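Collaborator request, handled under Task 6.
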Amino acid sequence: MEYRQFGKQALRVSEMGHGLWGMGGWSDADDKQSMAALERSLALGCNFFDTAWAYGAGHSERLLGQLIRNHPGSEIIIATKVPPKNGVWPADPNDALEDVFPAQHIIDFTKRSLDNLGTDHLHLQQLHVWDDQWAEAPGWIEAAEQLKAEGLIKFFGLSLNRWEPWNGLKAIRTGAVDAVQVIYNIFDQAPEDELFPLCQELGVAVLARVPLDEGGLSGKLTLETQFAEDDWRSGYFGPENLKPTVERAEALKALLPAGMPLPELALRFVLAHPAVSTTIPGMRKLAHVEQNIALSDGKPLPAELLEQLKAHRWDRKVAPWSD
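Structure tokens returned to the collaborator:
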């Protein structure tokens, strides 16, 4: 496993992190399978685990808490998130910060997450949605400062809305943001425009989420793919998105180096950007853990191939099916 600096902080994180979303709310989630994946991930050198209270109303946090209890003294870096008080995903620019993240709500949910995890502090607490009109509103910075002063969190960050990497630049410029979580993959390259340069300038850590486009870059989707109705992906890969995703993924196959599967290309693309501190693919199965972590080997993609992949950028707009 290769490790990277967490922004300007004195913290080294595994460049391949472990995302726990699928362990909390997907239709085929299995706790025994999830715990086996977490155990294997830790054994292979992953030290960064990203969860959220919203992933099963604390369920994935409790699974991570079990991993922590199983390995007292091990370096397990915990990142979680505060859900919006009004329950609106993504953030609505018409909502006031006080209705979404009042200071006491941030503090209360941090303590709730600590209870779920069975630990006395978090390495990173994040707001699960964000709109930059809130950047100068009072409350959120004060809450973060209080949590740090009380030793309940070390760092504070934001999880940006899907396909809106620009919608966090003002907050980052306040100096109160230690880390930012953003969708970044072969299709979604917009963070390279403004967000990544700003984060590099200010020493803000970057958590690259959805590196496989929710499975769009897995190489397994076909036009006949269907998910269970209670599976979030059934909406994301509905009529508007499935066909163009399959077509774009198919176009990428012409660029695959000999013997390289599409998911490997996708993950190596994300790791190639120096602004990325860690990427957090969802890994519920042992095979996924072993395949993904094996890619953290210090072997970069050729510069020529990275240049060719720029042509596969796909700028999309938020739609009812996308969140």
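The cover message to the collaborator said: "The longest strand covers residues 153-159. Residues 3-217+263-312 form a domain with the TIM Barrel fold (CATH 3.20.20.100). Please let us know whether this matches your experimental observations."
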